[in-house]
Amino acid sequence: MELKAVRGMHDLFGPELERWLAVETKARGIFQSFGYGEMRTPVLERLEVFSQTVGDDTDIVEKQMYLVAGDDSEKLVLRPEGTAAFMRAVVEHQLHQTGKPQRFYYYLSMFRHERPQKGRLRQFHQFGAELINDDSPEADAELITLLDAFLKSFGIVEYEVRINSVGCANCRPAYKEKLIAYLRPHFDSLCADCQKRFERSPMRVLDCKKESCQKIAADAPRMVDHLCAECQTHHTILKKRLNASGVTFLDDPNIVRGLDYYIRTAFEFTSNLLGAQSALAGGGRYDGLSSRFSNTNFPGVGFGLGMERIMLVLEQKQTLVTAPSNPRYYFAPLGPEAFELLYPLSLNLKRRGVAVEMTYGQKKLKDLLKLADRSGAQFTLMVGDRELQEGQAPLKDMANRTQENIPIAQLEEELFRRASCV
Ligand code: HAM
Q1: Residue ranges with strand state E in 278-350
Q2: pLDDT one-digit tens code per residue, 48-66
Q3: 324: pLDDT strictly greater than 80
Q4: CA of 166 to the centre of ligand 1 (A)
Q5: Which of 320, 326, 345, 414 is deepest in the core (most CB within 10 A)?
């Protein structure tokens, strides 16, 4: 049997991986400039990290987690999302105890057993940002502004920022009652998932993608009209801050998010360049999440951004972010003596950070010329016996086909100098 990668999981290599690396490098720079430091958590966590936080009725906990065989005493799962794992780590290392705002970002693989389709994978990669110990609406606005800046820095402008408030433990229960009362007469028209969650998670009907549920949701009472005074103030200030920082947004009362831990702010960045899986990123506030698995209680807000979806958008726009992946120099030795000169020189330059490509073994001139072209190098250095005797090596500019002689005695310094001044 031919062995293939697991469905919904992909190999990455070559130019595609180069494009990923270019995006990743730039992304890290953006997080750093907003003051977010990286955190890496293990790929395996105890099941409870997610079941106690993300919610029993959510798709993730109900049906999407990969359970890994361990011993009977603990159930381990592949991380399906970053926030709960991040909070587990924060509490474990008492990072919240400074009482001061702390900013972290992560770039990690996530695993969800979903039906694969364009933009939806079983192993996907997420950039996430989390800000803890700050319950202000300014913190929410900072995260949304960061996400907006992130996308714009890649030239992505084709998206909508949708924000909502999902209320808190004070105002949500009464609203849920109202919503259930509204939905009850429509029960038979709801999809099977919504019927199942009807009593415990009626708000999920609001963001259900099934057309029949969406029709019913259109006239449902809205959480934003039933907020308590604190939630109302929080939401109003958030919008004021976003307006002031020039982030264009839409009020979308149907953004409730598929995870249970959100309170107050919930938001999504959607793009119609993506097709059915239109969410580029999503996030919100999750004060109190820590109290679901520890005796601490501190506020947090954050977002997750799908790397594969960013790459899809960049492809659609044909504005691929590229890193200079081609070598700067291609070394072509004509004969064993030239090889003795160029081989150590290539390694020395690589050690000093200059990208050099060289074909090992003896090759004919014709083949070397072909290889030089294919390498995509900016310059080719071709050295044979005559050049060694004359002490001059011709460096050919592959784009405009000009040539310049470099004294062999100064080759390393001269090639290094030229590579570093660009
Ligand atoms: P989420 O909405 O489940 O939120 O995921 C965030 C983003 O990850 C989505 O908007 C999407 O771009 C990407 N994503 C999700 N599932 C898939 C998939 N199967 N294939 C490809 N991309 C996918 C969270 O995970 C929260 N932890 C976000 C958060 C952080 N909230 C607060 N802090």
Answers
A1: 279-285, 300-306, 329-333
A2: 999 888 877 788 887 899 9
A3: no
A4: 18
A5: 345
Instruction: State the average pLDDT over residues 379-395.
Output: 96
Q: Is 279 in the pocket of ligand 1 (CB under 6 A)?
A: yes
The SS3 of residue 67 is strand
Task: Flag whether pLDDT at 422 surpasses 60.
Answer: no
- State the pairing for strand pair 160-165/250-251: parallel
What are the CA-CA distances from residue 143 to residues 196, 208, 258, 282 (Å)? 34, 25, 19, 11
Residue-wise pLDDT tens digits, 85-105: 999 999 999 999 988 899 999
* C-alpha dist (Å) from residue 22 to 80, 155, 271, 307: 25, 14, 22, 12
The alpha carbon of 18 and the centre of ligand 1 are apart by a number of angstroms equal to 23
Q: How far is the CA of 284 from the centre of ligand 1 (A)?
A: 12
- Model confidence pLDDT, tens digit, residues 141-165: 999 999 998 999 899 999 999 999 9
Enter the tokens of residue 324. Answer: 């200079």
Q: Kindly state if the Cβ of 83 falls inside 6 Å of ligand 1.
A: yes
CB contact set of 381 (below 8 Å; sequence gap of 6+): 329, 330, 331, 332, 342, 393, 394, 395, 396, 406, 411, 415
Q: What are phi and psi of 312, to 5 degrees?
A: -65, -45
Asked if residues 258 and 204 have their Cβ atoms less than 8 Å apart, the reply is yes
Output the average pLDDT for the chain: 92
| CA gap 86, 132 in Å, rounded | 11
- Name the helix (H) or strand (E) containing 179: helix 172-183
The pLDDT tens digits for 198-211 are 888 899 899 888 89
* Dihedral Cα 195, 78, 91, 300, nearest 10 deg: -50
Rounded Cα gap, residues 368 and 43, in angstroms: 45
Helices (H), 77-136: 83-92
pLDDT band for 77, please (50, 70, 90 cuts).
Answer: very high
Start-to-end CA distance of the chain, whole Å, equals 51
Statement: residue 83 has pLDDT above 60: yes
Q: Is the CB of 53 under 6 A from ligand 1?
A: no
